[in-house]
Design goal:
The protein has 188 residues and is mainly alpha-helical. Among the domains are: 72 residues, Orthogonal Bundle (Arc Repressor Mutant, subunit A); 34 residues. The protein has 8 helices and 4 strands, in the order H-H-H-H-H-H-H-E-H-E-E-E. Strands 1-2 form a two-stranded antiparallel sheet. A hairpin with a 3-residue loop joins strand 3 and strand 4. Helix 5 packs antiparallel against helix 6. The radius of gyration is 39 Å and the shape is elongated.
């Protein structure tokens, strides 16, 4: 390489800045050149036309691209497709090794990933409101008191029904017509 082919320190800095994505005028200023006004754009344009600067920028961009490709090759991108592939491999290996629990777990993971299963949750904090449109919730006992219903706090024996589960849940409430419970119908 002859002396004429070498870049000055500021030209090298300019080439590095342009290769890293800076606009030419910004790269020109950041390289240490002192031009002002419109001269910055003109001089940056002239530098970009110099063959040795164009070659150096191209060389640096190729190095940046190669480094990016190496990084991408060593990095595993996590997508639905790659996770599906991983779970399929786990499922097949677990089946082959007769590890049925692991196979079932992998199958469930695949089903969840692809939307075949949705975890359901139940809101157990919901309480009775004064009216269906009321924004504020109140305690059931308070609502019943507002309605003029007296609640017996002791469990009263109720006659046997066909459904033993309902018998265990029945609570006698005075004040409702026909001896009805607030949400289960008549008590016989």
């Amino acid at each position: 390489m002859t002396k004429a082919d070498r870049l000055s320190v500021r030209q090298e800095a300019f080439a590095i800045n342009v290769a890293s994505g800076q606009p030419p005028t910004e790269a020109y200023r950041n390289a240490g050149f002192t031009a002002t006004g419109n001269a910055v754009a003109v001089n940056a344009g002239r530098l970009l036309k110099l063959a040795k600067v164009v070659l150096r920028v191209g060389s640096l961009q190729a190095k940046h691209e190669a480094a990016r490709e190496r990084a991408m090759a060593t990095t595993t991108l996590v997508t639905a497709h790659t996770v599906t592939r991983m779970l399929e491999e786990v499922f097949e290996a677990a089946k082959r090794d007769k590890q049925h629990g692991a196979a079932a777990t992998a199958a469930m993971g695949l089903a969840k990933l692809h939307g075949l299963l949705v975890d359901k949750t139940e809101d157990v904090t919901r309480r009775a409101a004064r009216s269906p449109n009321a924004p504020v919730e109140i305690e059931v006992e308070h609502w019943l008191t507002e309605q003029g219903v007296q609640i017996e706090h002791q469990m009263q024996p109720t006659p046997q029904r066909d459904d033993p589960e309902k018998d265990a849940q029945a609570v006698r409430v005075d004040g409702l017509p026909g001896g009805e419970t607030p949400d289960r119908g008549a008590v016989n």
